[in-house]
Each structure stands twice: as structure tokens, then as C-alpha cells.
Amino acid sequence: MDLQSANAWRLCVAPMMDWTDRHCRYFHRLLSPHARLYTEMVTSAALVRGQRGHLLEHHAGEHPVALQLGGADPVELAAAARFGEQAGYDEINLNVGCPSDRVQSGRFGACLMREPGLVADCVRAMREAVAVPVTVKCRIGVDDQDEDADLCEFAKCMSEAGVRVLIVHARKAWLQGLSPKENRNVPPLNYPRVYRLKREIPGLTVVINGGIDGAAAADEHLRHVDGVMLGRLAYHDPYALAGIDAALFGGSPPARETVLRRLAPYAESQCARGVRLASITRHILGLYHGQPGGKAFRRTLSECARSAGAGWGAVEAALRDLGAACVGKAA
Q: What CATH code is assigned to 256-330?
């Protein structure tokens, strides 16, 4: 797959704080061979002044994978982008959509939608520093911004700065009055606005994010925009990611147990390095979401993986309880 063609963004998994760490991304890659994966947001300051090796660690099997940065200093962001490219990331994405208080206090995230000129300066600096694509993830607006005029101005400013891919969460961010959690649900989704943006700037690759709940919805969005980005669906019901990948790119999704068997060598190697099994298995708890025995699988895995020194046997125990629950229901 050409990692810089518009089709490379046809299916993406959103950057999600505390969720899309390297273990989660490795698991998602086993489910979806085509999805473009994104890291949790990493601040440019943390990369420039912190432990880069830990913050940038990822597995070769994750590719294509993008590093999402948060920041508002062009020089600092350029340096952070350079570190990301050197670490092997396929894309550098700038966060202009996160509404958390911590992000606002640092003058980055969604509040930057009010400063398109500054964002453009950041993008230009990053693009001059790296050869990989520099992309932007934003909202359709913040607070009392006009969802039409202000979003269009922002997108045109990004395009003029050299951005070729804009990922748009189809909700406003209300920085005053709503918590970060409420900002994921309360502001209404406005998909038609994102569709219009694609028509207004046809040369821009537009990826839509927010509330996409399955293959049918993804297919409908792709009639209007270039790509879809899954968020909570991919995390809480990860097998849905496999189904959407197969629907969009062809083929059949791998069986759930096949995915687990493919995960085993990775998990065992990580545990041998001192990683706690629960740090990996917390991402697979929803693999049997909605399936007979799924609750038994989740319960057993949650309990066993937390034990000191837990190994892959905890997953095998969860599979046994899954099978037993299915037999019991059949009886």
C-alpha cells in the first residue's frame, strides 16, 4: 500500500488517550491489516525534554502507524516531528481537537482552532523538518465558532500551509461548560458539514471521525469523504474493526481465537521484558463483545491477568471459561 496515497487513510483508528498504546495498536493490527493506526497524543515538550525512547517505542508490526503530537510551538513541534520520523513513524499528526483542561492550559488541542495562523506556522515548520506526511486532526469548531465559515477558513489555512490530509471529528468542542468526557457525546454530530468541507476543498483528503458504529455507516461516509476514523467502537468492540476492514478491502475477518493465537508470541515476549500481562490484555477484553460466553471470557481474563507473574495461561483460562459458558447455554 502506498502510505502517502489518499487511499492510505480510507480506514483509521483514532488516537485515544490511555487506550491506543503500543500493545493496543499491535492487537488492532492483528485484527485489521489495512487500518492506519495512531498513537496516543504525545506532547512536543515531552519528546524534546523527556525520555524519547519510551515515548516513541512501537513494534515493526504496527505499520502504517502515525505519531500524534500536541503542542503550539513551531520550533519545538518541528524537533518532535523529526524525532518521530527518525523513530520510524509513517506520519506526524497534530492534535487540534482535544478539549481537556490540561491541553487547554498548555495552549494546544482544540483551543488552537481559534488560531489557524499559528497552527499553519506549526505545520509549515513540521513539514520542513520531515519527509513523511504531516496531518491535522480537528473538530468542526469550538464554542461559539461558526461551523461553516470558521471551519472553512481553518481548513483553507491548513491547505495553504501544505496539509494534504485533514481528519475532522464531526462535533464541536465546548471548552466552557462541558467535561472532556461530555465533549465525546453531548455536542451533536454534524456529518453533513464534513461532507460539505470535502466539496468545498476537493483537493484535500478528508477523513471523518465521530460515532461511526459499523461497516454500513463507514460505507455511507465513504460516499462523501475519503476516509473514516473509528474511535470507541474499535476499542470496546475490537472485532468490529476486523469486520469493517474486510468489508472495505475484501477478504474475511480472522476468527477471534486466531487473533489471540497470533497475539500470544508478542504477549509472551513482552512479559519476558517485564511488562505486566494486564497491560496487554486490558485491550482485548472486548474481543468477544456480544458473543455467547463473552462475559465469562472478560471476567476470567480480568481476574487472572492481574495476578502477580501472570502469563499467557490467563488467556487460556479465559478461553476455557468462554467455551464452558457456551456449552452451558447450549445445554
A: 1.20.120.1460
Each residue of 38-62: pLDDT tens digit?
A: 999 999 999 999 889 999 999 999 9
Domain ranges for the chain: 6-249, 256-330
Which CATH superfamily, name and number, covers 6-249?
Aldolase class I (3.20.20.70)
User: What angle, 0 to 180 degrees and rounded to 10, lies between the N-to-C axes of helices 256-272 and 313-330?
Assistant: 160
**Cell 511488562 maps to which residue?**
275
Residue identified by cell 507473574 is 309
Q: Is the peptide bond before 64 cis (omega within 30 degrees of 0)?
A: yes
The single residue of 98, 111, 138, 304 carrying the catalytic annotation is 98
Does residue 98 carry a catalytic annotation?
A: yes
Collapsed DSSP state (helix, strand, coil) of residue 140: strand
Confidence of residue 143 (pLDDT cuts 50, 70, 90): confident
Q: Supply the angle between the helices 313-330 and 294-305 in degrees, to the nearest 10.
A: 150
- Beta-carbon contacts of 98 under 8 Å, excluding residues fewer than 6 positions away, are 17, 41, 70, 108, 109, 110, 180
pTM assigned to the model:
0.94
CA distances from 60 to 22, 130, 216 (A): 11, 20, 31
